[in-house]
Amino acid sequence: MTKPLSEATKAIVRATVPALAAHGTSITGAMYKRLFQDAEVRDLFNQSNQGEGGRQTAALANAILAYARNIDNLGVLGGAVERIAQKHVGLQIQPEHYPYVASALLGAITEVLGDAATEEVLAAWGEAYWFLAHILMGREKVIYDNLESADGGWTGWRQFRIETKRRESEVITSFILRPVDGGPVLRHQPGQYLTFRIPVAGLSPQRRNYSISSAPNGETYRISVKREPHGLISNTLHDEIPEGAILEVAPPTGDFFLAEESDRPIVLLSGGVGLTPMVSMLEAIAETDREVPVHYVHGALDGRTHAMGHHVRSLTAEKPHLKTAIFYQSPHEDDEKGLHYDHDGYITVDWLAENTPIEDADFYLCGPTPFLAAFVNGLSEAGVPDDRIHYEFFGPAGTLKS
Q1: Cα–Cα distance, 126 to 106 (Å, whole number)
Q2: What single DSSP character describes residue 361?
Q3: Which candidate among 138, 212, 232, 253 keeps its CA 20 to 30 Å from the CA of 337?
Q4: What's the CATH code of the domain at 330?
Q5: 335 phi and psi, to 5 degrees?
Q6: Which of these is catalytic: 40, 67, 82, 98?
Q7: What tens digit of pLDDT does each residue of 20-60 get?
Q8: Dihedral, 245, 247, 251, 252 alpha carbons, nearest 10
Q9: Are 12 and 144 part of one and the same domain?
């Protein structure tokens, strides 16, 4: 059992909150710089998240600040801890990796805070780090054990062959994956993702997460990947990895998934490639006799970028409790309203309030960060309780609530 934090340590951590608020990103930036001096440790991380304006650096700084601010009431961080643990299991983080982070974090605190990083401050943050680390390691062991013991489950990296590679739109391609060993695969929870270790010429294998875009079937998985203009791995998958190629895959993880027990209406709300976990959820619902009202609401630029539109409509055809609403921001001249899409422009909270059971429904959201920020805050302001707003980040988790 993890030893509770001492009152002296909690007092020192609380006292460092102003410094963390002022210098948090400098500390986490310095921490990652130290951490990535070790190539083996560096290869555990998705390096694309280290760029793009320092998204991962900022996300970690916010997480550390939240930890310090809630040091007397860590129960409120339970959701964040679960999200981190799920991500760590996908990336195959092990207990032996935690000391590297401890050393890098304390070294970064010393580097950035200078004389303010006294022996007492470093000792307190060392104790606080290991307290949280042991909580994470304990939860991760449970997840690893459950994944290994489940039907079709495994640990580590399992080889999957790309059975089918299918273009869904000008920017999104789907990959059907079947295990090379011929065995069954764990039935994921709709909304979860897979983590891949993908070979790239001239580099060490790169780790990436992709949402599963199919319902669980015990035999295969499908991912649907958007080509990003400067995306090393997305372009490699689209252009260089053919059908028949073998990829290394970790088991499904993630804390964003469709609740099985609730009888409330469901709104699946997505933007762009954020539709991938929503299609998994919609397929899973369509395959059952569950007849709660479901509204699939999706926004795309136009028909050239919109993926899986025909598939979604086929899932909902002749099922009155399954409804779709497709928005195109700038319809192309070949896009036919009523056939390819339903509405011009953007999805709005006002539209949702008028056309979905907003007062009763569970909302599942996925899309770019601005999309999430608009709807997480907008739905909350419209009176939807926080426990009925579920969302998934693509990339590092950030702060959305205003």
Answers
A1: 7
A2: -
A3: 212
A4: 3.40.50.80
A5: -80, 125
A6: 98
A7: 999 999 999 999 999 999 988 988 887 776 654 467 888 89
A8: -70
A9: yes
Residues 137 and 18 both lie in one domain: yes
Flag whether 273 is in a domain.
yes
CATH of the domain at 197: 2.40.30.10
140 is catalytic: yes
Are 129 and 77 in the same domain? yes
* Residues whose CB is less than 8 angstroms from the CB of residue 142 and which lie 6 or more positions away in sequence, other chains included: none
User: Which listed residue (140, 168, 283, 392) is catalytic?
Assistant: 140
Q: Check pLDDT > 70 for residue 394.
A: no
The total of other beta-carbon atoms located within 10 Å of residue 182's CB is 7
Sheet holding 172-179, edge to edge: 206-211, 193-198, 246-253, 158-167, 172-179, 221-226
Same domain, yes or no: 25 and 120? yes
Read off the pLDDT of residues 106-145 as tens digits, 9 standing for 90 and up: 999 999 999 999 999 999 999 999 999 999 999 999 999 9
Instruction: Please say if 391 is a catalytic residue.
Output: no
Q: Is the pTM of this model over 0.90?
A: yes
Report the domain count for the chain.
3
**Most distant pair of Cα atoms in the chain: their distance:** 69
Q: Over the stretch 355-375, which tens digit does the pLDDT of each residue have?
A: 999 999 999 999 999 999 999
The average pLDDT across 297-302 equals: 98
**Structural domain containing residue 349:** 266-392
Phi and psi at residue 103, to the nearest 5° = -65, -45
End-to-end CA distance of the chain: 36
Q: What Cα–Cα distance (Å) separates residue 82 from each residue in 88, 142, 372?
A: 10, 12, 20
114 and 165 fall within a common domain? no
**DSSP symbol at 52:** T
Percent of the chain past pLDDT 70, that is, above it, reads: 96
Nearest to 10 by CA among 77, 78, 68: 68
Asked if residues 15 and 144 have their Cβ atoms less than 8 Å apart, the reply is no
Pairing between β-strand 362-366 and β-strand 389-392 as defined by DSSP bridges: parallel
Is the same domain home to 166 and 34? no
**CA 227 to the chain's CA centroid:** 18
- Decide if 35 is inside a domain: yes
| 88 belongs to a structural domain | yes
Alpha carbons 251 and 246: distance in angstroms, whole number: 16
Q: How many CA atoms lie within 13 A of 271 on its CB side?
A: 19
Q: Which of 253, 283, 299 is the last residue of a domain?
A: 253
Q: Is residue 401 part of a domain?
A: no
